[in-house]
Fold this sequence. Notes:
GO terms for molecular function: fructose-2,6-bisphosphate 2-phosphatase activity. This protein is of the alpha/beta class.
Amino acid sequence: GPFNSFTLFSNSGETQYNRDKxxxxxxxxxxxxxxxVQQSKAVGxxxxxxxxxxxxxxxxxxxxxxxxxxxxxNTHSSGMDxxxxxxxxERGFGVAEGRHKEYLRNMAKAAGQSCRDFTPPGGETLDQxxxxxxxxxxxxxxxMLDEQETTGDVASSSDGHQGASAHVLVVSHGAYIRVAxxxxxxxxRCVLPAGVKMSQLLSPCPNTGVSRFVVTLxxxxxxxxxxxxxxxxxxxxxxxxxxxPPE
Length: 247
């Protein structure tokens, strides 16, 4: 039968580079700042009651730390294994890594392109990032269906969805998540939440911003098939409202 995966994407917490508006991409692998730790605790408290059957995490340390703190604050997930997944790494920014965002903006301007669409030398194009995300979705879907087969009905669904369901946490990065959300909404034609504009759903994801999707999978000859997808919200950041201001 159909299988629902409630997939939560969380951006990593803040690093000092974020605060200084410096690009990290893949080459700069810095830990969370004190604010980033507090943000991760806050998102962990927000997600505290969700029982995740799988946790996929970018293998950059800011994402790994965020995921560890989320799980530490989760009622069900203590001691749960994280799957470190290079496909979830941030978009590579090539020569712009470690430089100020302004540097990228100026390069884009000189090339006559918008900053979002511009690829710095040695960096990844948006299409290359999207391809990595599509590859990740295949990994995710396969694991979800395997999980369902080994455990039978993963969790009987009490929320009105037909068939079995399970929750998955994915911890990645801002530029990557923006590409991922765009792919889910535009290419995979997710059902959108009522009354929310597409531009709002596609806005930049704040540190530890959470986006939530329900994907319905079924098994076919050629592997897992996505039979339906619904976006519940993107970039949720209410959990950050009561954080103490940074020192």
